[in-house]
Model the fold of this input.
Amino acid sequence: MSNANTIAPDASNEVPHRTVIVVGGGQAGLSISYYLKEAGIDHLVIEKHTVTHTWRSQRWDAFCLVTPNWQCSLPGHPYRGDDPHGFMKKDEIIAYLDGFITMVDAPVLEHTEVRRMKRRADGRYALSTTNGEFTADHVVVASGGYHTPIVPRMAERLPAGIVQLQSSHYRNPQALPDGAVLVVGSGQSGAQIAEDLHLAGRQVFLAVGEAPRCARFYRGRDVVDWLADMRYYDMPVEQHPLREGVRDNTNHYVTGRDGGRDIDLRRFALDGMELYGRLDDLRDGRLQFAPNLIANLDSADDTYNRINASIDAFIDKHGIDAPRGQSYEPVWRPEGERTSLDLAESGITSIIWCIGFTPDFSWIDAPVFNGRGYPAHVRGVTPQAGLYFIGLPWLHTWGSGRFSGVARDAAHVVGTIRSAIETTSASLAA
Done:
């Protein structure tokens, strides 16, 4: 249930105008609203569904945070529970967000989709929505970057009797038909969903991708705590070794389930999970996999050990008293690469696609996008005056798309808007 300050569409014949329109009512959009209200700037948040809809509708039942609760620091609404080093479960996350919604009390127009947005000759932005027309001096796009689920065309050739789900529609093992499950992709969602099914006693086939992994705990502390002390989460994108390329990286897989632990696909394999390389095709009733399982597992472990080695170096440099660390050694290795699997003989009755999303900003008519459909920006500020983005991965830092870093991004964007408004006012006064 939403506690937002929901407003009704304007029933007059005049096109409503706002100084700022925020498109998207997730934590990023509401964070923008928080700072706009603080600055006394007139605005409206337009949300396609209901505020924080994604958290309520696109998470499986056993979902929990993979970062500790203390990193939940939405503006004016830090985590205040009694388990800062724990990991909130789905219902706790929703309760946390409900508190934020109530506190912000944003002016929101829900169940409204923005179909088209374009800057007019007079500098104002015109927005066409399912609830009428609007104009604004500034527009903040806060709809995220995960819009269109990626499902390969080969899915069309799978037998009609096989249930296919995208990761955002998976809920629990009991909702799937009896039989084995193929999970495609081993990023955060794929690895955790595979674990969820595995723990429920289901036979799981996992097509392992190139996602890296990291330890949950190392040398007596959560790895996130170490990285925070090392100022990793304060590193701006322009200082990262990969620069903007880091925005394309897949998130490390780890879990906060049951108090937090590593996800070790090799250990799952010891317990009966069937691991394969990247899923490439379906031919003559047989699934075809790339011969890259060994490379993908080794690469994930290399990242795991590299992160731990950076923590070792930090501990040594600062003379910190901490338990001794050690390098991860594989508990299981594939005997070879298996590149084919008979679909009927495998007993697979369900397939869960966990290979990500692509952005869809096709409704925005503005010359700010690169060849891959991502907006060009510096800390959310685009080259086109009055157009901003927030909530995207590595918008500015690692935490930009998370509860931990969106506040400072929102403060920066609103600060830029405020400066623009003051400049315009001073110009008109002169």
Remarks:
- The mean pLDDT is 94.
- The chain has nine helices and 23 strands.
- The two ends are 48 Å apart (CA to CA).
